[in-house]
Amino acid sequence: MEDEATRLALVESELERHETRITEHGKQIDQLRLSFARMETTLSQISGSLASIDGKVTTVDEKLDQEHDRPGTSAIKLFWLVAGAAATACVAYFLGTLGVR
Question: What is the Cα Rg of the chain in Å?
């Protein structure tokens, strides 16, 4: 009888240990789900920023074509337009990686 009581105590101990581990794993899974949701939001914001930047680049391309066709236009103005679009892209990317909305 004492042998059965010892076995029962061991099984109960193992059961408690497993339940504790399962609870901890559940908490970790919940944290991963939250992280995943935040990452999805961040990627969505980055996607929106990239779409905006794509529109700006298209505008720059169109202006480049127009400027190329007209003699006497300033290449410096075009340079600053492209540099501004690139700077906007960099800022949007870094803000997106930091999770700033």
Answer: 30
